Structures are given as C-alpha cells and as structure tokens.
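Q: Structure for this?
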Amino acid sequence: MCSSCDQNKHPTTALKTPLVALVGRPNVGKSTLFSRISGIHRKMGNWPATTVEVGSADIVVNGEEFRILDIPGISSLSPASPDEKLTHDILMEDDLDLIVAIVDASNIARCLFLVSQLKELNKPMVVALTMTDIARRRGIYVDIEALSRGLDIKVVAVLPRSKNGTAELEKILTQTLAQLKTDERDLKESTPPLGDDQRISFVSDLITSSVTRTSTRPTLSDRVDRFLTAPISGALTLLGVLWIVFQSTTTLASPFQNWISSIISGVITPPIEDVLISTPWLKGLIVDGVISGVGTLLTFLPVMSIMFLLLSLLEDSGYMARAAVVSDRLMRFAGLPGKALLPLIVGFGCNVPAVSATRALSDARHRLIVGLSVPFTACSARLAVYIFVAGIFFGGNAGTVVFGMYIVSITLVILFALFLRLTLIKGAMREPLLIELPPYRLPTTTFVFADAWLRVRGFLKEVGGIVVITVVAIWFLMAVPISGNHQFANTPVNESAYGAIAKGITPIFAPTGFADWHTAGALVTGFVAKEVVISSWAQNYSVDSPNRQLIISDLGKKLKLDFERSSSGHSSAAVIAFLIFLTSYTPCVATIAAQRREFGLKWALTGVAFQLAIAWLLAVAVFQIGRLLI
Amino acid sequence: MGSLNPEELLFTQHFHHLNQYLHYRVTMKVTALIQNKRAVVVAIGDDRYLSRLRSSGIRPGAKIELVARTSSRGFLVKVDDTRLVLGYDLAEKIRCDYFT
C-alpha cells in the first residue's frame, strides 16, 4: 500500500497530493494508527512524546492517493517544547488538507479540549476515537453518534492495535478527500475562537451528552501504581526489572549465539575459503577481515534481539512512566526534570535517537544537559562488548558485571549532568514534577515484535554498513607494511600501518592497565561504532575462524594474556578499568553528528573532549585503586 | 429588586469578601486530601503554573482524587480520567473542596 516513506524531511514541499495529518495529545496512539494505515512501522512506546520527528507515507486507499503525516503529540495549540512547535507549524500551513484528530476515549475530556481548539483552524477534520477498550475497562462509555453531533464532525471508533475500525476510518478519509476535490473546501462559516471558560463549558456539555460512566474505583491500576511509585517498593522494582532484563539477556542468548557461530564457522566459511584459496589477499580480506569481524558481531544478534524484545515489552506495558516517577529524585539531584529519564532510557538502546528525543523537554538548557549526558548511557553496542569481555574474564558472574556497568553508566549520567548544571550550563530552571501516567496495556505480540525488529534492523544495518566499511579499512591498514621486508597483504599485523598507529597510541593507556596495542587499536576504531571493538580485536589478533568456542579459547586466551601482561598481574582491575573507559568515551560518530545537529558543533566537540577526559581519568583511578585491592 | 443603600452595599461587599476568604480557608491543598475521596479543584494558587496545569486537565471544576503519595514527595492523583504525579510544590498550589 505504501509507496514511499520519509521520516525526517519536511513533507509538504513535494507534488500536491492531499496532505492528511494525524493530530492528538501525546500517547494517544498516533504512530500506531500511522503504522496500521501506512504499513510502515515507526518507533512507538506507551509513554508521552515517543515521536519527536515527522513521519510521512504516500498511500493509496480505494483509488484515492494521499500523504499521511505522523507528527509529534501536542497538548494545546500553545506549543511548550520544540516537538510541539513542529506540530503547531504543520497545523498552521495552508497545504494541510485534512486533520485526523485522535481522541483517547479513556482520557476524553482533555482530548476534546484540543479538538475544540483544532476546530477553530477551519480545516476539514475527522475524529478517530481510540482506546475505547481501556475506557470500557474503566467504566467509561462513549456514545459516538452523540459525540459526532455535538462536535459536528464525523467520528470513527478505531483500535489500531487490533486493526478494528481502520478500514472504516480509511473509507471516511477517502470519502472526505474526494468530497474536498469537488467542493473546493466546503467549510462552514469560520468558527470564532472560544475563551477558556467557554471552551471548558463546551467540553463539559459535550461530555455530559455523550459519555456515561460506571464507577469502578479503586481500580487494579490504582493499586499497582501505588506499589510501583512508592519510595521503597518502586525503587526496588525498578532495580529488579533492570537486573532481570540484563540477566535474562545474557543467559537466554547464549545457546543461540553458539548456534550462529557454528553456522558461520562450519557452513559459511569453508566453501568461501576453498574458492579463494588461489588468491590469498582476497581470502585475507574476506575470511580474516569481513567474515571474522562481521561474523563475530553477528553472534551478538541474539543478545540484541532479546534485549530489544524485553525493552519493547516494558515500553508497551506503560511501566516506563512509572520508572520516571521513581527516578525523579535522582534526576532532580542532577537538576533535571523526571521527564528527562525518557531520552536516557532511549539511550540504553541507541544514543542517536536519544539525542533527538531530548526535543520533548521544554527548557533549552535541560535539552542541552541531557543531550550531552546521553553518551554516558550504555547503548546496546556497548552491551555486546560488555558481554564479550565479561564472558571471558568473569565467567559465571558475567551477568552481574554487566548489570554493574549499567549502574556505573547511570551514575555517570547523573554526575555529569550535575557537573554541567553547576559549571557550563547554569541557570536551568527547576521544573516542578508533573508526569502523566499512561494506562497499563497488555503488550501486543505484533507490536512488541515489530518494535524489536525495528531496532534489530538498525543493528543489522550498522553491521552491514559502517562496520563492514571499518573492517575493510582496518584490513587495508593491516595489509600495508610499515617496517620489515614484507609485501602488501602479507604483513604481520604488528608491522603494518595499523600496528604502527595502535602502538603510537598505546603509551596513553599505560596508567590504565590495558596499554596493549591490540586493545588500543580496537578502542580507536571503536570511535566509529562501539561494536567495532570486538571485530577489531578479532582482526588484529588474526583469528581466522569466527567460531565462538575458538574465540573464547583462542582470542579470549590471547586477550587474557595481554591484559595480564599490561596490568602486571592485576588483570581484573585492568578489565574493569577498560569496561569503564568503554562506557564513558565517545559512543560513535553518529552520536556526535546527532549532537552537532541538535546543539551545534561547539557543544558536540565540548562533549567529546569531556567524554575522553572523564573516560581516561576514571580508567586510571579505577586501575590504580583496583590494583591495590584486587 | 430595589437598589441597596450604601450601608447594605458595604455589608454585602464585606460579606462577599468574607465569604470568599472563608471559602478559601476551608478548601484544602492537594497535599491534604484524603486518599480515594473525590474532590473538586476550586482554585490554583499560583499563576505561573496555570497554563501547565490546565493543559494537564487541572482547572477549577475538574474532579480530583488522591490515589497515593509517591517517591520524590510526589502525589499520584486522578484528574477526571487522567493519572498524574504532581510534585509537592505543585500539589500545594492546588486548592480543592469536597462535594457537599
């Protein structure tokens, strides 16, 4: 059905196909409805302000072609943050042909308040009434006919998660658009704007005439909320949930990882080796470079998939907003509003969208503080390295070490935000706590999987794109001889250009306990993307086979030896220092680019400088103190 | 209805202000609401937060109910059909009254 999708460009400049915008308060299900109508999956979550950019899709329904826009949620027509401003600007454009106002039936009063404002824009409008199932559970029943009469607008009940009513909505959209073509904007006389009191009474009358309620208090949600937001039980639940996520990610993924590595080493590699046997340089590039580097990373696909699946489950359930309430005190300590937790949680998946997600914050200083602190959130690429390293050095305790790294990451975010607020970015307003708790939902399998797939696809794209390019670049640098009497593509790694660069950087890491050129080189390439650290190790240790068993016993053995040597026998302290360095130093070039786009080059580079300095200082401190203790 | 003489007018005005004052005094802050007992928002004591609270549905006339106290000195309330967590500084600006 969809012929194109462009998520970031401003959509109204192309050919004049009718423009239809999905408009509504945050977290009413705009992106879900957009996905249902267009067939394109967008990032969704059961929390306000998941969408901060415009998504658009050209679709054809019943022979009628139109472009549908998924825009950030808006509370009123007075925008309070940059994402709301974007929506406001789109609504004010003349090109917009039809508004689909999304009204959440379980929160109908506030949605109708916005609808009454949208009516005053004098644009054709259709109302899509969502979440009627949740409303019914709360004892709220909406009379659609009466609502339609009261608003003088067509109203369609639609449950996009189960696809109920989407066909009818599409039918009404196409009918309205067809009518617009013939009637040349058949609008009634312009509606005069209402004053606040008039608007309140308009909405009250509308609710009296179209909504009936049966009392269902106190609901189960109330009791659950009481538990999840209480000081002690709430904090313990949050820690428990995070621990379960990381523990199950590491243990559940293991058999799948072994399976993938055996396929790569047993099924894929041998025939390629046989074919390339006559051209050693090409064999070196493909087998020792691409298959070794990318193959090692692909064994982390199950880790990523399980982690993303669990995060999607949490997001879809509505728990994240409760987590924001619990962590508000921590955020407040850093001078940030509780809402700032949401971009940071996004950061645990990937730092790049997390930087954009700061747009949902209304204070520019808060946006900057959160945007510069985001790189300290341990993204999923770093998770792969944690699991790899912790598996080699800590065996059975790997899950706990990984969990510990997340605690370190959260602490770093809070302390760095506090540091910024007290030094470089003074004057950020203290915002009072005001968080809306979305209703709990039973996560839908389709959406949880679709959401997890969206992120897994991002990981695969990265592996297939920037990681392959980096691996090839590293292979090239490794193939160029710098010392000794060697030929191109037939050079020992430590006498290649790569070896020379890595060795040049190694002394910097002398006080951190991991001053070994293999690790130094891997960390330099990790600047491109964190997963590359693993593939670089695999390449520069010249491990030929990506079989995981071999890596643990071969690459793992080599790594252990080198850490032991570089730390003079204090390898545990050196490994922890390494993991903390990895957590703190610049996540990837894509994050720097995102920061530059949001905050300018100066701030992006300031962030990088701080990250590098903090990473090095922490690694030195951890190793120097650690070697006295361990 | 005949017009009031100056004494009566003064008394009425005085009584009106007194009434308002008493009403304000007997209303309570969200921080003092009884759990699970529905009240009505009467006034918002600080203009700075008016628009923010209004866009969250908190306005005079809205039904409000305290569900629980949360961590961070917050107050979990139901306002009409929405669940909100308000910080102490906001919660004490909202004046409510129970149904009579």
